Amino acid sequence: QVQLVESGGGLVHPGGPLRLSCAASGISVSRYTMGWYQQAPGKQREFVATITSSGNTNYADSVKGRFTISRDNAKNTVYLQMNSLKPEDTAVYFCVTSVVGRTYWGQGTQVTVSS
Fold it and tell me: Any idea what the Cα angle at residue 104 is, between residues 102 and 107, rounded to 5°?
């Protein structure tokens, strides 16, 4: 059973940093492409970043240079380091992966950027 559990969300001032974590069970994060998506109020879920099994990363244009995706294989956890946060980054952030053609989502963690 694949499970993804996000944590680390919260309220942060504009310009501040926040680090999200996605703890995985049932799979090894080193073997699969892992990703982060965001869903703002009233909007569809949107791509943020991915990291492949070989360590290649990809980012949405809106977060390039500000967000960094990484993983700790020993902890079986994927991270999203978010810097220079903007109010428009406010959203629920979801961790995601696909295993043998099936997509698994975490429950999401709320990030609110506000002064």
Answer: 160
Residue 71 φ/ψ, nearest 5 degrees: -145, 155
Give the pLDDT band of residue 89 (cuts 50, 70, 90): very high
Two structure tokens written together for 2: 């694949």
Q: Can you give the pLDDT at residue 114?
A: 97
Whole-angstrom distance, CA of residue 21 vs CA of residue 4 = 10
Q: What percent of the chain has pLDDT over 90?
A: 100
Rounded Cα distance, 65 and 54, in Å: 21
Rounded distance, CA 72 to CA 75, Å? 5
**Calculated CA dihedral for residues 83, 86, 104, 2, nearest 10 degrees:** 40
- Only one residue has tokens 């506000």, namely 114
